[in-house]
Fold:
Amino acid sequence: MFGFGQDIGIDLGTATVIAYVKGKGIVLREPSVVAVDRNSGDVLAVGQEARRMLGRTPGNIIATRPLREGVISDYTVTEKMLKYFINKVCGKFIFAPRIMICIPSQVTEVEKRAVIDAASQAGARKVYLIEEPIAAAIGAGIDISKPCGNMIVDIGGGTTDVAVISLGGSVVSTSLKVAGDKLDEAIVKYIKRKHNIMIGERTAEDLKINIGCVYPKIQDMEMDIRGRDLATGLPKTVTIYSSEMLEALIEPAMMIVDAVHSVLEKTPPELASDISDRGIYMTGGGCLVDGLDKLLQEKTGINVMIAEDAVSCVALGTGKALDNLDALDGKTKK
Structure:
């Protein structure tokens, strides 16, 4: 290591935290869940270990996700979580690391401040922020410095960011609070309404990953789930089909399509023609829901591509942006 400590890029996601260290690549990928002892306020578990506790904790332990809809909802817990991850990545270094964190494109100054403060408190020497769609574009391997339009749809856990990027900045962008979590919520509501069964968010997520779809499938898939029957109060097993998932998920999926549509409407004509040539790039874990690319392609008439390693795009882009930190030092001082 050179004398400055490390440079770390962090994708501080609502569902997952991914850390990238300059020269090493992605070194950490953990769920953004923290288990805290209610009485003492001590952190008991972070990441994978804490995720196993979601919905399964006794009264004195709370397993929470400190980020909701892409922004910090519980400041102290976020700070503890960042501290834990930074220590895990760096070990005990003499110098504090420089950290670049990505944020949704439409966050307020107060929300930005919260991220900067949390990272500084957690041990960063200097904190830089980068917008998620820009990081996602860099991570997807797009050269964003050229004067031509690229459209990125980054669907994470809490937010979906849609942006048209040209010359290294976003020209038109929007951020909506409909993403992976909202899809899970839609599944929970649907199963409750249709089967009168209550399931937890982890079961909903398993359904989404295994048989979820937003475009009719040729072959109907099925999956057995267990939940609590609301009529009897007893555990019950039911079989859910992917055609039902389509019913459950189409509404939030259409909200994402509408957001893309509204960004396209505001895009300058020259850039719009670039986009129809080059297509729309989708990144983020949420874009892996079966058929979302087909749905978007059908509704916009533009070719849609899912970036390779979509989940890590934002972290990879943040990592690549670290290489230009010294140039940034002049521009975006904290």
Remarks:
- The two ends are 25 Å apart (CA to CA).
- The chain has three domains: 7-134+314-331, 149-178+255-310, 180-248.
- The mean pLDDT is 87.
